[in-house]
Design a protein that fits this description.
globular, 4 strands, mainly alpha, 2% strand
Protein backbone atom coordinates (compact mmCIF):
# COMPACT_ATOMS: atom_id res chain seq x y z
CA UNK A 1 0.00 0.00 0.00
CA UNK A 2 1.42 3.36 -1.02
CA UNK A 3 1.77 6.10 1.54
CA UNK A 4 -1.31 8.31 2.03
CA UNK A 5 -0.99 12.04 2.70
CA UNK A 6 0.43 12.42 6.20
CA UNK A 7 -2.55 13.40 8.33
CA UNK A 8 -2.23 14.41 11.99
CA UNK A 9 -2.21 11.28 14.12
CA UNK A 10 -5.03 10.88 16.64
CA UNK A 11 -2.54 11.19 19.50
CA UNK A 12 1.08 12.19 19.69
CA UNK A 13 3.80 12.88 22.24
CA UNK A 14 6.00 15.81 23.13
CA UNK A 15 9.64 14.82 22.43
CA UNK A 16 11.71 14.38 25.57
CA UNK A 17 14.83 16.59 25.92
CA UNK A 18 17.70 15.07 23.95
CA UNK A 19 15.53 12.26 22.54
CA UNK A 20 16.45 10.46 19.31
CA UNK A 21 14.15 9.83 16.38
CA UNK A 22 14.26 6.09 17.11
CA UNK A 23 13.29 6.64 20.75
CA UNK A 24 10.40 8.91 19.78
CA UNK A 25 9.08 6.36 17.26
CA UNK A 26 9.22 3.60 19.89
CA UNK A 27 7.37 5.66 22.49
CA UNK A 28 4.71 6.91 20.07
CA UNK A 29 4.02 3.43 18.66
CA UNK A 30 3.65 2.13 22.23
CA UNK A 31 1.18 4.87 23.07
CA UNK A 32 -0.87 4.13 19.94
CA UNK A 33 -0.63 0.32 20.44
CA UNK A 34 0.75 -0.18 16.91
CA UNK A 35 4.02 -1.40 15.42
CA UNK A 36 6.80 1.19 14.85
CA UNK A 37 6.41 0.55 11.11
CA UNK A 38 2.85 1.86 11.30
CA UNK A 39 4.13 5.13 12.78
CA UNK A 40 6.94 5.56 10.25
CA UNK A 41 4.47 4.92 7.42
CA UNK A 42 1.81 7.30 8.70
CA UNK A 43 4.35 10.05 9.39
CA UNK A 44 5.87 9.87 5.91
CA UNK A 45 9.22 8.29 6.80
CA UNK A 46 8.52 5.13 4.76
CA UNK A 47 6.73 5.27 1.41
CA UNK A 48 5.18 1.79 1.33
CA UNK A 49 3.40 -0.09 4.06
CA UNK A 50 4.13 -3.47 2.45
CA UNK A 51 7.87 -3.07 3.09
CA UNK A 52 7.28 -3.69 6.76
CA UNK A 53 8.03 -0.08 7.58
CA UNK A 54 11.73 -0.40 6.83
CA UNK A 55 12.78 3.13 7.84
CA UNK A 56 16.42 3.65 6.91
CA UNK A 57 18.96 4.68 9.53
CA UNK A 58 19.62 7.84 7.51
CA UNK A 59 16.58 9.33 9.26
CA UNK A 60 18.73 9.40 12.36
CA UNK A 61 21.06 11.78 10.50
CA UNK A 62 18.44 14.06 9.01
CA UNK A 63 15.00 14.11 7.43
CA UNK A 64 14.75 15.58 3.96
CA UNK A 65 12.68 18.82 3.77
CA UNK A 66 9.51 17.27 2.23
CA UNK A 67 9.63 14.42 4.74
CA UNK A 68 10.27 16.61 7.76
CA UNK A 69 7.25 18.76 6.97
CA UNK A 70 5.02 15.69 6.67
CA UNK A 71 6.48 14.18 9.84
CA UNK A 72 6.03 17.38 11.82
CA UNK A 73 2.44 17.76 10.58
CA UNK A 74 1.56 14.16 11.44
CA UNK A 75 3.10 14.27 14.92
CA UNK A 76 1.79 17.77 15.74
CA UNK A 77 5.22 19.32 16.32
CA UNK A 78 7.27 22.02 14.63
CA UNK A 79 9.81 21.17 11.94
CA UNK A 80 12.52 22.57 14.23
CA UNK A 81 11.48 20.11 16.97
CA UNK A 82 11.49 17.27 14.43
CA UNK A 83 15.03 18.13 13.30
CA UNK A 84 16.20 18.09 16.94
CA UNK A 85 15.44 14.34 16.92
CA UNK A 86 18.22 13.89 14.32
CA UNK A 87 21.96 14.55 14.18
CA UNK A 88 21.53 17.44 11.71
CA UNK A 89 22.12 20.09 14.44
CA UNK A 90 25.65 18.65 14.87
CA UNK A 91 26.58 19.23 11.22
CA UNK A 92 28.97 22.12 12.01
CA UNK A 93 30.34 20.62 15.24
CA UNK A 94 31.06 16.94 14.52
CA UNK A 95 33.17 15.99 11.45
CA UNK A 96 31.65 12.50 10.85
CA UNK A 97 28.15 14.02 10.63
CA UNK A 98 29.44 16.58 8.12
CA UNK A 99 31.05 13.76 6.14
CA UNK A 100 27.79 11.79 6.07
CA UNK A 101 25.90 14.77 4.66
CA UNK A 102 26.66 16.68 1.47
CA UNK A 103 29.39 19.16 2.31
CA UNK A 104 28.66 21.84 -0.28
CA UNK A 105 28.81 25.29 1.35
CA UNK A 106 26.06 26.77 -0.84
CA UNK A 107 23.75 23.75 -0.97
CA UNK A 108 21.47 22.39 1.73
CA UNK A 109 22.71 19.16 3.35
CA UNK A 110 21.30 15.83 2.30
CA UNK A 111 21.91 12.35 3.63
CA UNK A 112 24.37 10.29 1.62
CA UNK A 113 24.71 6.53 1.61
CA UNK A 114 28.03 6.58 3.44
CA UNK A 115 28.73 6.01 7.10
CA UNK A 116 32.24 7.21 8.02
CA UNK A 117 34.12 6.06 11.08
CA UNK A 118 33.11 7.61 14.40
CA UNK A 119 29.61 8.42 13.08
CA UNK A 120 27.45 5.70 14.66
CA UNK A 121 28.24 2.76 16.91
CA UNK A 122 25.90 0.57 14.81
CA UNK A 123 23.46 0.19 17.69
CA UNK A 124 23.03 2.41 20.69
CA UNK A 125 24.63 2.66 24.08
CA UNK A 126 22.39 3.36 27.04
CA UNK A 127 22.13 4.15 30.74
CA UNK A 128 19.56 1.99 32.58
CA UNK A 129 18.92 4.71 35.17
CA UNK A 130 18.14 7.27 32.43
CA UNK A 131 15.77 4.83 30.72
CA UNK A 132 13.77 4.49 33.94
CA UNK A 133 12.64 8.06 33.44
CA UNK A 134 11.86 10.84 35.84
CA UNK A 135 8.84 9.26 37.54
CA UNK A 136 6.25 11.26 35.59
CA UNK A 137 3.09 9.49 34.41
CA UNK A 138 4.05 9.64 30.74
CA UNK A 139 7.53 8.21 31.39
CA UNK A 140 6.18 5.55 33.72
CA UNK A 141 3.97 4.37 30.85
CA UNK A 142 6.33 4.66 27.90
CA UNK A 143 9.80 4.84 29.44
CA UNK A 144 12.49 7.48 29.68
CA UNK A 145 14.70 9.00 27.02
CA UNK A 146 16.59 7.04 24.40
CA UNK A 147 19.14 9.82 24.00
CA UNK A 148 20.31 10.91 20.56
CA UNK A 149 23.92 11.41 21.69
CA UNK A 150 24.16 7.77 22.81
CA UNK A 151 24.47 6.89 19.11
CA UNK A 152 27.75 8.85 18.77
CA UNK A 153 30.89 6.82 19.51
CA UNK A 154 32.52 9.74 21.35
CA UNK A 155 29.76 9.61 24.00
CA UNK A 156 30.72 6.81 26.37
CA UNK A 157 29.44 7.94 29.80
CA UNK A 158 26.40 9.23 31.64
CA UNK A 159 27.50 12.24 33.65
CA UNK A 160 24.24 12.42 35.59
CA UNK A 161 24.65 8.92 37.04
CA UNK A 162 28.48 8.87 36.81
CA UNK A 163 28.75 5.52 35.01
CA UNK A 164 29.99 4.25 31.66
CA UNK A 165 27.16 3.55 29.23
CA UNK A 166 26.05 -0.02 28.63
CA UNK A 167 26.79 -1.52 25.22
CA UNK A 168 24.86 -4.77 25.17
CA UNK A 169 21.68 -6.31 26.47
CA UNK A 170 22.62 -8.35 29.57
CA UNK A 171 20.15 -11.07 28.60
CA UNK A 172 20.96 -11.82 24.94
CA UNK A 173 24.53 -10.42 25.13
CA UNK A 174 24.16 -8.65 21.78
CA UNK A 175 24.64 -4.96 21.14
CA UNK A 176 21.53 -3.12 22.29
CA UNK A 177 18.81 -2.68 19.66
CA UNK A 178 20.99 -3.86 16.79
CA UNK A 179 20.46 -7.53 15.90
CA UNK A 180 18.89 -7.71 12.44
CA UNK A 181 18.50 -11.08 10.65
CA UNK A 182 18.53 -9.17 7.34
CA UNK A 183 21.93 -7.73 8.24
CA UNK A 184 20.76 -4.19 7.47
CA UNK A 185 20.82 -1.15 9.71
CA UNK A 186 17.38 0.21 10.52
CA UNK A 187 16.11 3.23 12.36
CA UNK A 188 14.22 0.86 14.70
CA UNK A 189 15.02 -2.87 15.00
CA UNK A 190 12.17 -5.25 14.12
CA UNK A 191 9.94 -2.36 13.03
CA UNK A 192 6.89 -4.49 12.13
CA UNK A 193 6.71 -6.05 15.59
CA UNK A 194 4.08 -4.58 17.91
CA UNK A 195 3.52 -5.21 21.61
CA UNK A 196 7.05 -4.61 22.90
CA UNK A 197 7.64 -1.85 25.44
CA UNK A 198 10.02 0.91 24.24
CA UNK A 199 12.53 -0.22 26.87
CA UNK A 200 12.45 -3.90 25.94
CA UNK A 201 15.33 -5.35 23.91
CA UNK A 202 14.13 -5.77 20.33
CA UNK A 203 16.98 -8.04 19.27
CA UNK A 204 15.58 -11.08 17.47
CA UNK A 205 16.85 -14.41 18.71
CA UNK A 206 15.44 -17.36 16.72
CA UNK A 207 12.71 -17.92 14.19
CA UNK A 208 10.17 -20.67 14.84
CA UNK A 209 7.10 -21.94 13.06
CA UNK A 210 5.13 -19.52 15.22
CA UNK A 211 7.25 -16.61 14.03
CA UNK A 212 10.30 -14.73 15.19
CA UNK A 213 11.13 -14.56 18.88
CA UNK A 214 12.60 -11.51 20.56
CA UNK A 215 14.79 -11.04 23.58
CA UNK A 216 12.36 -8.72 25.36
CA UNK A 217 14.61 -7.95 28.34
CA UNK A 218 13.87 -4.63 30.05
CA UNK A 219 16.97 -2.50 29.50
CA UNK A 220 16.04 -0.14 32.33
CA UNK A 221 16.65 -2.99 34.75
CA UNK A 222 20.10 -2.30 36.16
CA UNK A 223 20.02 -5.03 38.78
CA UNK A 224 22.94 -7.40 38.54
CA UNK A 225 24.88 -5.12 36.20
CA UNK A 226 28.52 -4.47 37.05
CA UNK A 227 28.48 -0.81 36.06
CA UNK A 228 31.81 1.01 35.84
CA UNK A 229 31.96 4.22 37.84
CA UNK A 230 33.61 7.26 36.27
CA UNK A 231 36.99 8.43 37.46
CA UNK A 232 37.55 12.21 37.62
CA UNK A 233 39.64 11.92 34.45
CA UNK A 234 36.89 10.14 32.48
CA UNK A 235 34.29 12.53 33.81
CA UNK A 236 36.40 15.49 32.70
CA UNK A 237 37.02 14.07 29.22
CA UNK A 238 33.35 13.26 28.61
CA UNK A 239 32.34 16.68 29.90
CA UNK A 240 34.84 18.31 27.53
CA UNK A 241 33.52 16.36 24.53
CA UNK A 242 29.91 17.23 25.39
CA UNK A 243 30.95 20.89 25.67
CA UNK A 244 32.37 20.66 22.14
CA UNK A 245 29.08 19.17 20.92
CA UNK A 246 27.00 21.81 22.69
CA UNK A 247 25.05 24.21 20.42
CA UNK A 248 26.56 27.08 22.42
CA UNK A 249 30.12 26.03 21.52
CA UNK A 250 31.94 27.78 18.69
CA UNK A 251 31.44 25.47 15.68
CA UNK A 252 34.92 25.87 14.16
CA UNK A 253 36.68 25.16 17.46
CA UNK A 254 34.49 22.12 18.18
CA UNK A 255 34.99 20.80 14.65
CA UNK A 256 38.78 21.12 14.85
CA UNK A 257 38.99 19.62 18.36
CA UNK A 258 36.89 16.57 17.50
CA UNK A 259 38.79 16.02 14.24
CA UNK A 260 42.10 16.26 16.14
CA UNK A 261 40.81 13.66 18.61
CA UNK A 262 39.74 11.36 15.78
CA UNK A 263 43.12 11.57 14.02
CA UNK A 264 45.10 11.06 17.21
CA UNK A 265 42.94 8.04 18.08
CA UNK A 266 43.97 6.50 14.73
CA UNK A 267 47.64 7.04 15.56
CA UNK A 268 47.15 5.49 19.00
CA UNK A 269 45.37 2.55 17.36
CA UNK A 270 48.14 2.03 14.82
CA UNK A 271 51.01 2.23 17.32
CA UNK A 272 49.60 0.13 20.14
CA UNK A 273 51.02 -1.16 22.52
CA UNK A 274 53.68 1.59 22.41
CA UNK A 275 50.99 4.03 23.59
CA UNK A 276 50.03 1.81 26.53
CA UNK A 277 52.04 3.76 29.10
CA UNK A 278 50.48 7.14 28.26
CA UNK A 279 47.73 6.74 30.87
CA UNK A 280 47.10 4.25 33.65
CA UNK A 281 43.59 2.77 33.65
CA UNK A 282 41.59 0.52 35.95
CA UNK A 283 41.90 -3.13 34.98
CA UNK A 284 38.44 -3.27 33.40
CA UNK A 285 39.30 -0.46 30.96
CA UNK A 286 42.68 -1.99 30.17
CA UNK A 287 40.99 -5.32 29.43
CA UNK A 288 38.42 -3.67 27.15
CA UNK A 289 41.14 -1.81 25.26
CA UNK A 290 43.24 -4.97 24.93
CA UNK A 291 40.19 -6.78 23.56
CA UNK A 292 39.67 -4.04 21.02
CA UNK A 293 43.29 -4.14 19.89
CA UNK A 294 43.23 -7.92 19.70
CA UNK A 295 40.29 -7.65 17.31
CA UNK A 296 42.17 -4.99 15.34
CA UNK A 297 45.24 -7.20 15.12
CA UNK A 298 43.20 -10.18 13.97
CA UNK A 299 41.57 -8.04 11.31
CA UNK A 300 44.97 -6.67 10.23
CA UNK A 301 46.36 -10.19 9.86
CA UNK A 302 43.33 -11.17 7.81
CA UNK A 303 44.26 -8.57 5.18
CA UNK A 304 48.00 -9.00 5.60
CA UNK A 305 48.63 -5.28 5.76
CA UNK A 306 47.58 -4.97 2.12
CA UNK A 307 45.00 -2.52 0.85
CA UNK A 308 41.65 -4.20 1.57
CA UNK A 309 39.21 -4.43 -1.31
CA UNK A 310 36.20 -2.13 -1.35
CA UNK A 311 33.83 -4.69 0.10
CA UNK A 312 36.16 -5.73 2.89
CA UNK A 313 34.73 -5.96 6.37
CA UNK A 314 37.73 -4.02 7.70
CA UNK A 315 38.50 -1.34 5.08
CA UNK A 316 39.89 1.08 7.69
CA UNK A 317 41.19 -0.68 10.77
CA UNK A 318 42.88 2.12 12.72
CA UNK A 319 40.34 4.84 12.03
CA UNK A 320 37.49 2.63 13.23
CA UNK A 321 35.99 3.33 16.65
CA UNK A 322 35.83 0.63 19.35
CA UNK A 323 32.49 -1.07 19.92
CA UNK A 324 32.51 -0.90 23.70
CA UNK A 325 32.18 2.26 25.76
CA UNK A 326 35.00 1.10 28.06
CA UNK A 327 37.47 0.69 25.17
CA UNK A 328 36.31 3.98 23.68
CA UNK A 329 36.86 5.78 26.98
CA UNK A 330 40.38 4.37 27.28
CA UNK A 331 41.31 5.12 23.65
CA UNK A 332 40.04 8.70 23.72
CA UNK A 333 41.73 9.32 27.07
CA UNK A 334 45.11 8.35 25.59
CA UNK A 335 44.49 10.46 22.48
CA UNK A 336 43.32 13.46 24.50
CA UNK A 337 46.31 13.15 26.86
CA UNK A 338 48.66 13.50 23.89
CA UNK A 339 46.73 16.43 22.40
CA UNK A 340 46.83 18.39 25.67
CA UNK A 341 50.63 18.37 25.76
CA UNK A 342 52.61 21.53 25.05
CA UNK A 343 53.78 21.71 21.47
CA UNK A 344 57.37 20.65 22.17
CA UNK A 345 56.21 17.61 24.18
CA UNK A 346 53.64 16.67 21.54
CA UNK A 347 56.42 16.80 18.95
CA UNK A 348 58.53 14.40 21.03
CA UNK A 349 55.55 12.09 21.59
CA UNK A 350 54.75 11.90 17.87
CA UNK A 351 58.39 11.24 17.01
CA UNK A 352 58.46 8.38 19.53
CA UNK A 353 55.15 6.86 18.46
CA UNK A 354 55.77 7.03 14.73
CA UNK A 355 58.91 4.94 15.10
CA UNK A 356 56.42 2.08 15.29
CA UNK A 357 53.92 3.34 12.70
CA UNK A 358 53.32 1.90 9.23
CA UNK A 359 53.76 4.04 6.13
CA UNK A 360 51.06 6.52 5.26
CA UNK A 361 49.84 4.79 2.03
CA UNK A 362 48.83 1.72 4.10
CA UNK A 363 45.08 1.39 3.54
CA UNK A 364 44.55 0.40 7.17
CA UNK A 365 44.80 4.11 7.99
CA UNK A 366 41.42 4.49 6.28
CA UNK A 367 40.31 8.13 6.02
CA UNK A 368 42.75 9.34 8.69
CA UNK A 369 44.77 11.57 6.35
CA UNK A 370 41.70 13.01 4.64
CA UNK A 371 40.35 13.98 8.07
CA UNK A 372 43.72 15.44 9.04
CA UNK A 373 44.10 17.67 5.99
CA UNK A 374 40.45 18.71 5.67
CA UNK A 375 39.13 18.96 9.24
CA UNK A 376 41.96 19.07 11.80
CA UNK A 377 43.27 22.26 13.41
CA UNK A 378 46.24 23.95 11.67
CA UNK A 379 48.54 23.27 14.62
CA UNK A 380 47.83 19.53 14.87
CA UNK A 381 47.89 19.15 11.09
CA UNK A 382 51.29 20.82 10.93
CA UNK A 383 52.79 18.76 13.77
CA UNK A 384 51.56 15.42 12.41
CA UNK A 385 52.60 16.31 8.85
CA UNK A 386 56.11 17.17 10.00
CA UNK A 387 56.35 14.09 12.23
CA UNK A 388 55.52 11.84 9.29
CA UNK A 389 57.97 13.67 7.05
CA UNK A 390 60.71 13.04 9.59
CA UNK A 391 59.69 9.37 9.88
CA UNK A 392 59.17 8.79 6.14
CA UNK A 393 61.16 11.45 4.24
CA UNK A 394 59.92 10.24 0.87
CA UNK A 395 56.25 10.15 1.90
CA UNK A 396 53.77 12.34 3.68
CA UNK A 397 50.01 12.31 4.30
CA UNK A 398 48.11 12.76 1.02
CA UNK A 399 47.06 16.33 0.37
CA UNK A 400 49.74 17.92 2.54
CA UNK A 401 52.26 20.38 1.16
CA UNK A 402 55.84 19.30 0.71
CA UNK A 403 57.28 22.77 0.11
CA UNK A 404 59.63 23.11 3.05
CA UNK A 405 60.65 26.61 2.07
CA UNK A 406 57.11 27.84 2.70
CA UNK A 407 57.76 27.80 6.46
CA UNK A 408 59.79 31.03 6.17
CA UNK A 409 60.14 31.62 9.92
CA UNK A 410 62.77 34.25 10.73
CA UNK A 411 63.51 32.98 14.26
CA UNK A 412 63.88 29.35 15.47
CA UNK A 413 60.74 27.37 16.27
CA UNK A 414 60.66 26.32 19.93
CA UNK A 415 58.73 26.65 23.19
CA UNK A 416 58.76 30.35 24.12
CA UNK A 417 56.46 30.78 27.11
CA UNK A 418 53.37 31.78 25.15
CA UNK A 419 50.90 29.92 22.92
CA UNK A 420 49.72 30.67 19.40
CA UNK A 421 46.34 31.66 20.87
CA UNK A 422 48.02 34.54 22.73
CA UNK A 423 48.86 36.37 19.47
CA UNK A 424 46.26 38.82 18.09
CA UNK A 425 45.62 39.47 14.42
CA UNK A 426 46.57 43.12 14.79
CA UNK A 427 49.75 43.81 16.74
CA UNK A 428 49.04 46.23 19.65
CA UNK A 429 50.76 49.61 19.47
CA UNK A 430 52.88 48.80 22.53
CA UNK A 431 54.16 45.61 20.91
CA UNK A 432 54.77 47.30 17.58
CA UNK A 433 56.74 50.13 19.18
CA UNK A 434 58.87 47.65 21.12
CA UNK A 435 59.49 45.64 17.93
CA UNK A 436 60.47 48.70 15.92
CA UNK A 437 62.86 50.06 18.55
CA UNK A 438 64.46 46.67 19.24
CA UNK A 439 65.99 46.58 15.76
CA UNK A 440 69.67 47.59 15.62
CA UNK A 441 71.35 49.60 14.25
CA UNK A 442 68.21 51.03 12.64
CA UNK A 443 64.62 50.97 13.88
CA UNK A 444 62.08 49.06 11.77
CA UNK A 445 59.92 51.28 9.56
CA UNK A 446 56.50 52.30 10.88
CA UNK A 447 55.11 53.80 7.69
CA UNK A 448 53.83 53.49 5.01
CA UNK A 449 53.95 49.68 5.25
CA UNK A 450 53.20 49.41 8.96
CA UNK A 451 50.00 47.39 8.50
CA UNK A 452 51.77 44.85 6.32
CA UNK A 453 54.58 44.58 8.86
CA UNK A 454 52.12 44.14 11.75
CA UNK A 455 50.39 41.28 9.94
CA UNK A 456 53.64 39.60 8.97
CA UNK A 457 55.00 39.84 12.52
CA UNK A 458 51.80 38.37 13.99
CA UNK A 459 52.17 35.44 11.60
CA UNK A 460 55.86 35.06 12.51
CA UNK A 461 55.04 34.97 16.25
CA UNK A 462 52.59 32.12 15.66
CA UNK A 463 55.12 30.29 13.50
CA UNK A 464 57.80 30.69 16.17
CA UNK A 465 55.88 28.47 18.64
CA UNK A 466 54.10 26.09 16.23
CA UNK A 467 56.31 25.68 13.19
CA UNK A 468 53.32 26.26 10.90
CA UNK A 469 53.79 27.43 7.34
CA UNK A 470 53.01 31.10 6.71
CA UNK A 471 49.67 30.34 5.07
CA UNK A 472 48.69 28.02 7.93
CA UNK A 473 49.63 30.60 10.56
CA UNK A 474 47.67 33.26 8.67
CA UNK A 475 44.59 31.02 8.58
CA UNK A 476 45.05 30.28 12.29
CA UNK A 477 44.91 34.03 12.96
CA UNK A 478 42.03 34.54 10.55
CA UNK A 479 44.12 36.75 8.25
CA UNK A 480 43.39 36.33 4.53
CA UNK A 481 46.55 34.85 3.05
CA UNK A 482 46.46 37.22 0.06
CA UNK A 483 47.03 40.09 2.51
CA UNK A 484 50.55 38.78 3.07
CA UNK A 485 51.44 38.48 -0.59
CA UNK A 486 52.50 35.41 -2.58
CA UNK A 487 54.29 32.45 -1.00
CA UNK A 488 56.91 31.15 -0.34
CA UNK A 489 58.65 34.56 -0.38
CA UNK A 490 59.16 35.44 3.30
CA UNK A 491 57.46 38.62 4.50
CA UNK A 492 56.62 39.71 0.97
CA UNK A 493 56.61 42.60 0.02
CA UNK A 494 58.74 43.74 2.97
CA UNK A 495 61.64 41.33 2.34
CA UNK A 496 63.54 43.78 0.10
CA UNK A 497 63.61 46.39 2.87
CA UNK A 498 65.19 43.95 5.31
CA UNK A 499 67.68 42.67 2.74
CA UNK A 500 68.96 46.11 1.66
CA UNK A 501 68.87 48.16 4.84
CA UNK A 502 70.44 47.64 8.30
CA UNK A 503 67.39 46.21 10.04
CA UNK A 504 67.57 43.35 12.55
CA UNK A 505 64.15 41.73 12.22
CA UNK A 506 65.31 38.49 13.86
CA UNK A 507 66.65 40.22 16.95
CA UNK A 508 63.55 42.41 17.21
CA UNK A 509 61.26 39.37 16.99
CA UNK A 510 63.25 37.57 19.70
CA UNK A 511 62.87 40.54 22.07
CA UNK A 512 59.15 40.86 21.33
CA UNK A 513 58.63 37.12 21.94
CA UNK A 514 60.37 37.44 25.32
CA UNK A 515 58.17 40.42 26.19
CA UNK A 516 54.97 38.49 25.35
CA UNK A 517 56.10 35.47 27.36
CA UNK A 518 56.75 37.68 30.40
CA UNK A 519 53.29 39.27 30.39
CA UNK A 520 51.42 38.50 33.66
CA UNK A 521 48.12 37.95 31.80
CA UNK A 522 48.10 35.87 28.63
CA UNK A 523 44.98 36.70 26.59
CA UNK A 524 43.40 33.96 24.45
CA UNK A 525 42.75 36.08 21.36
CA UNK A 526 41.59 33.11 19.33
CA UNK A 527 38.81 32.45 21.84
CA UNK A 528 37.82 36.11 21.69
CA UNK A 529 37.71 36.09 17.88
CA UNK A 530 35.45 33.06 17.93
CA UNK A 531 33.23 34.28 20.78
CA UNK A 532 32.71 37.73 19.25
CA UNK A 533 32.47 36.46 15.68
CA UNK A 534 28.85 37.66 15.20
CA UNK A 535 29.23 40.81 17.37
CA UNK A 536 27.80 44.17 16.27
CA UNK A 537 27.30 47.49 18.00
CA UNK A 538 23.79 47.44 19.48
CA UNK A 539 21.14 49.91 18.40
CA UNK A 540 20.73 51.12 21.98
CA UNK A 541 24.44 51.87 22.32
CA UNK A 542 24.56 53.66 18.98
CA UNK A 543 21.50 55.76 19.77
CA UNK A 544 23.06 56.75 23.08
CA UNK A 545 26.24 57.89 21.28
CA UNK A 546 24.19 59.93 18.80
CA UNK A 547 22.27 61.61 21.62
CA UNK A 548 25.45 62.38 23.55
CA UNK A 549 27.69 63.53 20.71
CA UNK A 550 26.63 65.36 17.53
CA UNK A 551 28.11 62.77 15.17
CA UNK A 552 26.85 64.55 12.02
CA UNK A 553 29.38 67.29 12.64
CA UNK A 554 32.27 64.94 11.99
CA UNK A 555 31.00 62.58 9.27
CA UNK A 556 28.68 62.84 6.31
CA UNK A 557 27.20 59.32 6.30
CA UNK A 558 25.59 58.15 9.54
CA UNK A 559 25.49 54.53 8.25
CA UNK A 560 29.17 54.57 7.33
CA UNK A 561 30.10 56.03 10.71
CA UNK A 562 28.07 53.39 12.55
CA UNK A 563 29.70 50.57 10.58
CA UNK A 564 33.19 51.89 11.23
CA UNK A 565 32.39 52.51 14.90
CA UNK A 566 31.19 48.91 15.26
CA UNK A 567 34.35 47.68 13.54
CA UNK A 568 36.48 49.83 15.85
CA UNK A 569 34.88 48.33 18.99
CA UNK A 570 35.11 44.80 17.56
CA UNK A 571 38.82 45.26 16.89
CA UNK A 572 39.30 46.37 20.52
CA UNK A 573 37.41 43.30 21.79
CA UNK A 574 39.26 40.75 19.64
CA UNK A 575 42.62 42.34 18.84
CA UNK A 576 41.75 41.93 15.16
CA UNK A 577 41.94 43.82 11.88
CA UNK A 578 38.99 46.22 11.70
CA UNK A 579 38.37 45.41 8.04
CA UNK A 580 37.46 41.83 9.03
CA UNK A 581 34.68 42.95 11.40
CA UNK A 582 31.35 41.09 11.00
CA UNK A 583 29.45 44.38 10.50
CA UNK A 584 30.86 44.62 6.96
CA UNK A 585 29.21 42.59 4.22
CA UNK A 586 31.53 40.15 2.38
CA UNK A 587 33.19 41.79 -0.61
CA UNK A 588 32.69 45.32 0.69
CA UNK A 589 35.01 47.87 -0.91
CA UNK A 590 36.69 50.13 1.63
CA UNK A 591 37.01 53.81 0.82
CA UNK A 592 39.61 56.25 2.09
CA UNK A 593 36.96 57.74 4.37
CA UNK A 594 36.60 54.40 6.21
CA UNK A 595 40.28 54.40 7.08
CA UNK A 596 40.11 58.05 8.16
CA UNK A 597 37.26 57.31 10.57
CA UNK A 598 39.14 54.42 12.15
CA UNK A 599 42.33 56.51 12.37
CA UNK A 600 40.52 59.38 14.09
CA UNK A 601 38.80 57.04 16.53
CA UNK A 602 42.19 55.52 17.36
CA UNK A 603 43.94 58.90 17.68
CA UNK A 604 41.22 61.56 18.16
CA UNK A 605 42.20 64.92 16.62
CA UNK A 606 39.75 66.99 18.72
CA UNK A 607 37.31 66.85 21.66
CA UNK A 608 34.36 65.67 19.59
CA UNK A 609 36.22 62.67 18.21
CA UNK A 610 37.63 61.94 21.66
CA UNK A 611 34.13 61.94 23.16
CA UNK A 612 32.94 59.42 20.55
CA UNK A 613 36.04 57.24 20.99
CA UNK A 614 35.63 57.24 24.79
CA UNK A 615 32.01 56.11 24.50
CA UNK A 616 33.02 53.33 22.09
CA UNK A 617 35.82 52.17 24.39
CA UNK A 618 33.34 52.09 27.28
CA UNK A 619 31.02 49.93 25.14
CA UNK A 620 33.95 47.58 24.47
CA UNK A 621 34.75 47.36 28.20
CA UNK A 622 31.12 46.55 29.05
CA UNK A 623 30.90 43.84 26.37
CA UNK A 624 34.19 42.30 27.46
CA UNK A 625 33.23 42.35 31.15
CA UNK A 626 29.87 40.72 30.37
CA UNK A 627 31.55 38.04 28.25
CA UNK A 628 34.15 37.28 30.93
CA UNK A 629 31.41 37.00 33.57
CA UNK A 630 29.46 34.51 31.43
CA UNK A 631 32.65 32.58 30.72
CA UNK A 632 33.46 32.30 34.46
CA UNK A 633 29.89 31.30 35.33
CA UNK A 634 29.91 28.58 32.71
CA UNK A 635 33.26 27.27 33.93
CA UNK A 636 32.02 27.17 37.53
CA UNK A 637 28.79 25.46 36.48
CA UNK A 638 30.61 22.78 34.50
CA UNK A 639 33.26 22.12 37.13
Amino acid sequence: MQQPPAEPMPRSLVPLPGESMAGFILRLSHRLHVAPSNVTWRTGLTPYRVTGGMSPVRHLLMIEPPEVSAFAHATRMSTAAAEQLTLLPYLRHYPPVAEALTRQPNDPPRARSIFPSWLLVGSTRYCPACLKGDGSVIQERHGGTWRLLWHLPVVFACLEHQVLLQDACPACQHAAQSRHPEGRLKLVPSPSTAGLHPLQCRNSSISTSAGREFCGHRLDDGSGLNQIRLSPELDGLQRTILDWLSPSATPQTSFHNLADLQVMASIVNATWPHTADATRFPHVLTAALDEHYAAQQQAAESVGGKPPHRGSRHPSLWSTEPRSSAATAALLTVAHTHLRQPVHQLRETLTSLLEHAPETPDRRWGATWVTLQRDASPLIRHEIDNAFRRRFPAQHPPGSSDQADRTACVIPVRARGYQAENIPQHLPDEWFTLLSQASRPKFLPRSPQANGLRRAVAVQLVQAVTGMRMDEAARFLGIPTNWLGPFPAPLHPLRLIFQKKPYDLGGALEQLAEHIAALPLQVDYRQRRESFQPWNLSTATWNNICRTVPTKRIVRSDDQFRECSSAFVWSLLTGSEWKLAPCFLPGRTFAQQDSKIIQRLSCPPDRTWKAVADLLRQAADRSLTSWERRHIERFQRDH
